[in-house]
Specification:
Distance between the termini: 36 Å
Strand content: 15-25%
Helix content: 25-40%
Order of helices and strands: HHEHEHHEHEEEHEH
Shape: globular
């Protein structure tokens, strides 16, 4: 039977916050549309750090750091990940589109693309919108996006938790980057 020893922090070779801030980021942005759970927001920060996402847009009622409840899940990622608050999600979508990003709603809508069929074209800057835990993404925000992605599900519940969804989508998106960026 193969033994699997836990790696030490030194063996993981993680960069510190200052190194992370200076490192190249993947051209990925996350937009949170009125997310209400601070634990979900903190988890999003942590996942954005793990995938070296360029920016996190916190919109509407989405809470912003510093906050103890966000930090419980973020574990310091609020200091490494660049973020900005927008009064309205449409502002974030418009700003990113003006900067050349393709923006995709991650939502269960008509004519969505199944996530397994989605791949980021080489060199494309991409943003993903994730919605409120109860209401989802506002329809006017969905309408402003370039497309919509949906994760196939086979159980009795109608959706994943947003923090799980973000991890799944970023992992799929990350497949476009075969050569990891250098610190």
């Amino acid at each position: 039977m193969t033994q699997h020893r836990l790696k030490t922090m030194q063996e993981l070779g993680r960069m510190n916050t200052a190194q992370f801030k200076e490192a190249d980021k993947y051209p990925l942005c996350i937009i949170l549309d009125n997310v209400r759970s601070m634990h979900n927001i903190g988890s999003c920060f942590r996942t954005c750090d793990a995938f070296r996402v360029e920016k996190l847009c916190l919109c509407g009622i989405t809470a912003v750091p510093p906050h103890r409840e966000i930090e419980k899940a973020a574990l310091g990622a609020t200091l490494s990940v660049d973020w900005q608050h927008y009064e309205d999600t449409l502002q974030a979508v418009a700003e990113l589109k003006a900067k050349g990003y393709k923006v995709y709603a991650v939502e269960q809508v008509e004519n969505s693309t199944p996530l397994q069929d989605f791949a980021i074209p080489a060199g494309e800057k991409t943003a993903f919108v994730f919605g409120n835990e109860v209401e989802g993404i506002r329809q006017d925000v969905v309408d402003a996006c370039d497309g919509a992605l949906e994760i196939p599900q086979f159980g009795t519940k109608h959706s994943f938790n947003i923090s799980v969804t973000i991890g799944i989508v970023l992992w799929q998106a990350f497949q476009a980057y075969l050569n990891p960026l250098k610190p």
